[in-house]
Amino acid sequence: MSKLFCYNHSPEPILMLPNETDYAEANLLYTCPTCRYQVKLVINDLEGQIPSHQKVITEEEVRIFLEEYIRCYQLADLNLFMTLWSDYATQSFILELGQAAQVETSLEAIRRNYRDAFKRMGQNTYYFNILELFLEDNNMKVNAIYKVEYPANSLNPQIYQGRLSMLLSRNFNDKLEILHLSYQPYQAY
Fold this sequence. Notes:
Layout: E1 2-6, E2 15-17, E3 29-31, E4 38-42, H1 59-75, H2 78-82, E5 85-93, E6 102-104, H3 107-121, E7 125-136, E8 139-150, E9 158-170, E10 176-185
Parallel strand pairs: 5-10
Antiparallel strand pairs: 1-2, 1-4, 3-4, 5-6, 7-8, 8-9, 9-10
């Protein structure tokens, strides 16, 4: 049997296909009916072998990913920064306590937001303090405090800071990517 796995779900496959399937003609990429996330057919999966997207994400991997995230953000390099995001990523901003969150549900909307922010800020100084890391359904949740100062190296910079919650997922290429990012900014000054 060949198995179909989803990034966001348990190690159990969501679909089993008989080995007689003609894989040359089969579409090897599907969409999960539960979460709309892209899933990949693993042909002739070996017993006991865990597909790379189901390996547990380690704290060291997260720290390396966050270093790259901060580097790309500080450079204000939109194309490089967007390679860190899943094609199915969402982002939300909670502007004030009790107020409904503004949610971006498409990668293009997220790209547009960062394009505008990077254009306004240019190179900046980005501080990131991890408060906690924990596993959540094969993904890693990162809660942190962030602070952005721009322009970089200014004597009187504009400052934005707040809380951030990031959900990281491992894709089929064994690469971490942002599945969801939520900002709760404090007052800018």
